Amino acid sequence: MTWSDRLAPSLDDFAALGKAAFDALPDGFRQLAGDVVIRVDDFPDEEVLDALGIQDPFELTGLYQGVDLGQRSVLDFATQPSRVFLYRRPILDEWAERGDVSLGDLITHVLVHEIGHHFGLSDDDIHRIEDEA
């Protein structure tokens, strides 16, 4: 393979990789995630970084925004759909630095991590599950 004619994956390429990653998840997992919208941006916006106390936008590869399943009630008013953000540039940066994982696998990892938040899991819960796997 020659790299001289290769371009970095675009936002649309990342969206396609995110959709493929979601489609490859087990049926039960996808059904529980049902209404989650997957969005790809180059970086998180300044408001998100400030809210999380993050200085370097390369430190955030993904984000879940919404009300997790454990906090929802049938009595709630209709809300915006839950969203998972995949941040292209930080993911590409991590992928290039690591060199031990495919881009598709890294995108899947970030996507599953953020969907874990949709299920009500904390970062500690997710890391414990990953360590036990």
Automatic annotation (TrEMBL):
Transmembrane region(s): none
Q: Which domain of life is it from?
A: Bacteria
Give the matching InterPro entries: Zincin_1 (IPR010428), Zincin_1_sf (IPR038555)
Family matches, as CDD domains: MMP_ACEL2062
Identify this protein by name.
Neutral zinc metallopeptidase
Recorded source organism is Caulobacter segnis
Q: What is the lineage of its organism?
A: Bacteria, Pseudomonadati, Pseudomonadota, Alphaproteobacteria, Caulobacterales
